[in-house]
Amino acid sequence: MSQLQTVQDDNVPIWLPRLAAQGGPRFLQIADALQAAVADGSLKPGHRLPPQRQLAAQLEVDLTTITRAYDEARRRNLLEGRGARGTYVAAPKVELTAIIDLSMNTPPPPDGVDFDDLLKQGLSQVLMRADSELLMTYHLAGGSDSDRKAGAQWLEPMFGALDSRQVIVCPGAQAAIAAAILALTQPGDAILAEPTTYPGLRTAAIQFGRRLIAVPADQHGMLPEMLEAACRQHQPGLVFLNPTLQNPTALTMPQRRRQELAAIATRCNVRIVEDDPYWLLADAPPPPIARFAPEQVYYISTLSKCLTPGLRVAFVLIRDPHERGRFLAALRSFALMVAPLTAALATQWILDGSAGGLMEGIRNEARLRHRMARDILAGRYSGAGDGLHVWLELPAYWNSSQLAHAADREGIAVTPAEAFATGSASVNAIRISLGSIKDRGRLQAGLQRLSQLLARRPEAFSNAVV
Question: HTH gntR-type domain spans which residues (predicted)?
Answer without folding.
Answer: 24-92
